[in-house]
Specification:
With 387 residues, the protein is α/β, with parallel strands linked by helices. The protein has three domains: 112 residues, NAD(P)-binding Rossmann-like Domain (Rossmann fold); 186 residues, NAD(P)-binding Rossmann-like Domain (Rossmann fold, 3-Layer(aba) Sandwich), CATH 3.40.50; 81 residues, 2-Layer Sandwich (Alpha-Beta Plaits), CATH 3.30.70.260. It is built from 13 helices and 16 strands. The strands form three sheets. It has a seven-stranded parallel beta sheet with strand order 8-7-6-9-10-11-12, with helices on both faces. Helix 3 crosses helix 6. The longest helix is centred in the last third of the chain and has 21 residues. The radius of gyration is 25 Å and the shape is elongated. It starts with a strand and ends with a strand.
Length: 387
């Protein structure tokens, strides 16, 4: 029986997939084999020796101590693309409300309460202050063409916009889904100089932190409308506020609020609603559960943030799964005790992701005692046998 701890409410359509004869789950589970989490902070948690995996029902993993997990041989999963449509719809909504000054106009209309028969005349007289451009025919720059960025780009094309995309890490899967009329550029400066609207869809990394600063803004049109529904750290807030104040930017819309941003004219701050749809929560829960169970039962890894993807069927008597540091000589040191134990390696795969690697050996023979032998190998951080 495997124990799965839930740190947040996980949609039932996900947990219903758990075979009750193999799994127990809930927020009261102690010493779990796996953890399902949404937004709960985990950086101060202590992890037991049984813990094999953590699955984040969502894309961002800032609430999970990735380095700590890697050192302990814990696979961390996320669910990229599961909430992509929900975020896409919110981004398109944000682009429209930033153009037509919808939030400000709604607040203004509230001030007419109690004016009685004068309301219709006052509306006609006052509506000119909320004039804004149509998006058709305008240029949208999409920075980051992953699961969300591609959907946003394609939706914008359908709305009659010219779309320019930038992503130095664009993969084949996403490229094939991208509408053929989207112009992909190699220099992000082309996005800055050409776009009437710019939307950010990149992860928070050392390279992307503060990428939208005063220097980037200086290259943009003064009429640009910037959308950030990705990560707060991508922008330098002080530079955004300064640009809004001096006419260097028409509008900034985000769902990452801060005390500094709230209250500025032409800054629209929404709650972090990107994945807050029942459909998105269901999709994330289902994907997270499937990732965890496939790893527990079959040793397969899909959508891990700290280890490489690897799917290898079991054709022999067992599959030995080894998580180790990505350094020279480890694979030889792993296969040697396996062979010495009289096990025949029928198939083997090994892949790396930055500082760590995952090696699977499909073997025939008796695997009793092999886990202890492999755990003693230098640079090995996790070993299990799946049958």
């Amino acid at each position: 029986m495997y124990n799965i701890q839930t740190l947040n409410k996980i949609a039932a359509c996900g947990t219903d997939l758990l075979d009750k004869s193999k799994y127990s789950f809930g927020d009261e589970v102690n010493n779990p084999d796996a953890i399902l989490v949404r937004s709960a902070a985990m950086h101060d948690m202590e992890f037991g020796d049984k813990l094999l995996a953590i699955a984040r029902a969502g894309a961002g993993v800032n609430n999970i101590p990735i380095d700590k997990c890697s050192e302990k041989g814990i696979v961390v999963f996320n669910t990229p693309g599961a909430n992509a449509n929900a975020v896409k719809e919110l981004v398109i909504c944000a682009m429209l409300i930033s153009s037509r000054k919808i939030p400000a106009s709604m607040e203004w209309v509230k001030t007419l309460k109690g004016k009685g028969d004068e309301v219709s005349k006052l509306v006609e007289k006052g509506k000119s202050q909320f004039v804004g451009p149509e998006i058709m025919g305008k240029t949208l720059g999409v920075i980051g063409l992953g699961a969300i960025g591609v959907l946003v780009a394609n939706a914008a094309v359908a709305l009659g916009m010219n779309v320019v995309g930038y992503d130095p890490f664009l993969n084949v899967e996403h490229a094939l889904k991208l509408n053929g009329s989207v112009k992909v550029v190699k220099d992000v400066k082309d996005i800055y100089t050409q776009s009437d609207y710019i939307t950010l869809h990149v992860p928070a990394t050392a390279d992307t932190k503060g990428m939208i600063d005063k220097d980037a803004i200086a290259l943009m049109k003064k009429s640009v409308r910037l959308l950030n529904f990705s990560r707060d750290s991508l922008v330098v807030e002080a530079d955004i506020i300064a640009a809004i104040g001096n006419g260097g930017m028409a509008c900034y819309t985000t769902d990452f609020g801060s005390d500094n941003l709230i209250g500025h004219e032409n800054v629209i701050v929404l709650p972090h609603l990107g994945a807050s749809t029942p459909e998105s929560e269901d999709n994330c829960a289902v994907m997270a559960v499937k990732e965890v169970t496939d790893y527990i039962e079959n040793g397969n890894i899909t959508n891990s943030v700290n280890l490489p993807n690897m799917i290898m069927p079991i054709t022999g008597d067992a599959k030995i799964c080894v998580i180790h540091k990505n350094v020279e000589g480890v694979i030889n040191n792993v296969t040697a005790p396996v062979s010495a134990a009289g096990l025949n390696i029928e198939n083997m795969e090994s892949k790396s992701k930055k500082d760590y690697a995952y090696t699977c050996l499909d073997v025939k023979g008796n695997t009793d005692g092999i886990i202890e032998k492999l755990k003693s190998v230098e640079n090995v951080v996790g070993v299990r046998v799946v049958k």
